[in-house]
Amino acid sequence: MSDDLRDWEFVCTEAELLPGEKKTVWHGDTPILVVNLDGDYYAVEDQCTHEDFELSAGPVDQETGLIECVFHGAKFDLRTGAATCPPAYTPVATFPVKVVDGALWTRDNR
């Protein structure tokens, strides 16, 4: 692994994450959800800020870029992390996604 990827977590190859698909990886104790929105990759903490429930269980709307928590219906913008409707008011953390030689990488950069 090159030095510039030392603190990054391998997600998968681009071919393994088609538009509309999502994958969760762990960076230490942080679950990170990576989503392909029509060829653009976004990563957010895989945890609803309203209740401790994984966002990866919910559907992604490709047109709006929103993911819905199936527990109580809160929605979050995958591009910004913003909570877009109650019962969630606090945004989810967002993380960088890097593409290197067709492979996706992410990390908790907080």
Could you please describe the fold and organization of this structure?
This protein has 110 residues and is mainly β. It has a single domain (3-106), classed as Rieske Iron-sulfur Protein. The protein contains no helices and eleven strands. The strands form three sheets. The chain has a four-stranded antiparallel β-sheet with strand order 2-3-4-9, with no helix packed on it. A hairpin with a 2-residue loop joins strand 3 (30-37) and strand 4 (40-45). It is globular. The two termini are 22 Å apart. The relative contact order is 0.24. The model has no long low-confidence stretch (mean pLDDT 95).
Secondary-structure map:
Layout: E1 9-13, E2 22-27, E3 30-37, E4 40-45, E5 60-61, E6 66-68, E7 75-77, E8 83-85, E9 94-95, E10 97-100, E11 103-106
Antiparallel strand pairs: 1-11, 2-3, 3-4, 4-9, 5-6, 6-7, 7-8, 10-11
Keywords: 2Fe-2S, Dioxygenase, Iron, Iron-sulfur, Metal-binding, Oxidoreductase
Pfam families: Rieske
Domain Rieske: 9-106
Strand count? 11
Number of helices: 0
Low-confidence stretches: none
What is the average of the pLDDT values? 95
* Radius of gyration, in angstroms, nearest whole number: 13 Å
Order of helices and strands: EEEEEEEEEEE
Major sheet size, sense and barrel closure: 4 strands, antiparallel
- In the residues, how many domains can be counted? 1
* CATH architecture annotation: 3-layer Sandwich
Quick one: overall form? globular
What percent of residues adopt helix (DSSP H or I)? under 10%
What structural category arises from helix and sheet content?
mainly beta
Termini Cα gap: 22 Å
Strand percentage: 35-45%
Output the CATH homologous superfamily. Answer: Rieske [2Fe-2S] iron-sulphur domain
